[in-house]
Design brief:
The chain has 176 residues and is mainly alpha-helical. It is 69% helix and 3% strand. Helix 5 runs antiparallel to helix 6. The two termini are 18 Å apart. Keywords: Cell membrane, Membrane, Transmembrane, Transmembrane helix.
Length: 176
Amino acid sequence: MNTPPSAERVWDPFVRVFHWSLVSTVVLNQWVLEEGEGPHRWLGYAAAVLVLLRVVWGFIGPRYARFSDFWPTPTRLRHHLRAWFRGDEMHVPGHNPLGALMMLALMLLVLLLALTGWLQGTDRFWGNEALRDAHESLADGLIGLAGLHAAAALVMGRLERTRLIKAMVTGVKERY
């Protein structure tokens, strides 16, 4: 097996700006802005636009941004989990299959939050408690998965001996 390079340019500027912009919109909407108010709603719509742009980028962006590079197929997941349980080296230049699953789940939650938030402002669903509860549950789920995502980035960085957090700032995935 070839030894991977000690540093490799992986995430392009669009992916990094998308990531940290989405983090900012989620943090602001969850802990800073008043729920249901104009800034909260518009930031939610902005988050949805970010996700939709990332979906487009997943088809037209550079190699490591493309879904085809990291789509979590059953085969990719199985190989990754086997390697993990055997203690084999698991170096993946871009997203590993579990990270890809997490990314897709987080993006889906953001889109569902935008949809349920928007629906609450329509005449048909104005004041609908079930929709409000669904929106709040989705928000709680997003925060929980985002926390798991951050923890997994730290753990996987140690296991893979890479600087994952730094890579999402610089675009370069370094091995140590």
